[in-house]
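Troubleshooting: if your tokenizer reports a length mismatch, compare against these two reference records.
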Amino acid sequence: MASGDQRITVVIADDEPVVREGLRLILETQGDLAVVGGAGDGREAVRMCVELRPDVLLLDVRMPSGDGLWVLEELARTQALGANATHVLMLTTFGTDEFVDEALAKGASGFMLKSSSYEELIAGVRATARGEGSLSPSVARRIIDGYVAGRRNPAVDPADIRRIADLTSRERDVLTLLGDGLSNYEIADRLTVSEHTVKSHVSRLLAKTGCRDRGQAAALARRTRGA
């Protein structure tokens, strides 16, 4: 978790040393961010998170010795993932949403393209550390476009329908916006309510749906869109 000086601690997991170093240099321009480790493969990433308990793991989707999805499974198994542990922000060079739903369902808090701007990356790390999660605007746009174009399976799992059945209309609104990748601030602005109100809605909808965190709620929102 965060160190005594309240800096956000980060581990970077990517199999390319030049990428790890570049990300480190970007993040450490910010006084509130501290990179405490770098991992070159999945197994090393799990070991570092278990030992160091960073606030955020920047995790490449495709790595040797355990890809990003495997790392998420291992962190969940060792209870090193999520609230009071490490939040995971996935990184990819690919402009598709191929892994987004599965990664979020497995506990990732967000998804960013490596081509994202410095500002987007830094904001994403901070949002992830707060437990809010983050979707790169381009990733969120692709997900939304996928639904609009009808590229996804229209059948909705009845089990998912039951999970959202008890949500109020406002909680459904918040869930939908989580699925679009919006932060608490953006949801509050969209719904013309306070951030505190949004946080309360998020807490309640997580409890009602049985989602571990915002990432799982976002995946649920996309699976049940239009249901």
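Reference record two:
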Amino acid sequence: MALLAVLTLYSSFYPSMGMDVGMEQFIQAMPKGMVDALGFAAITSGAGWVHSTFFSLLGLFVLCGAGVVWGKGAIAGQEETGVLELTLAHGISRSSVYWQKVAAIVVRFVLLGFLVALGLAVLNGPAKLGRDWGKVLAEILSYLLIGFLCSCVALAIGTGTGKAGPAVGGGAAVIVLGFILDALGKANADLEHLRNF
């Protein structure tokens, strides 16, 4: 619901803000390095608006936050509460539990991807986004994979340590460091290799 609310909020502002001449002038007045770092180069198009406001900012952090919570809770959360021991006492192996938790997280991300795609389909016309669906599906897939990576890091650290704190820290570090390295790579041509990293 949070993702759909954020998507709806940002998309509904596009006709009044993104298509406004003032937005174009505002972007031109900003330093090029800052425009590139924030991903605002194409913000005046519908696709650029959704990419810059939803897929690269709040929508990304909401998705990754959910992924980190799921990854943390899958093993470490159950380890700390003692629930995992009850499961293992029924003869289920740790590796089986681990892979079932990964599968459950994948299903959650697929459902979120479907909901985001559905939200974009509904908002595309009224918000005048003009999205190319081939590119939308590729963007949703990459968006989900970033969230899944954060979730997998949190799950792996939680599995290794049995503690929720380090799992949350590790999963959150992926998105925060990734966001910073991407911004630095966009802002400075000499640091462009950081974006690929």
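Descriptive notes for reference record two:
- The CA atoms of residues 7 and 54 lie 6 Å apart.
- The first helix runs from residue 2 to 18.
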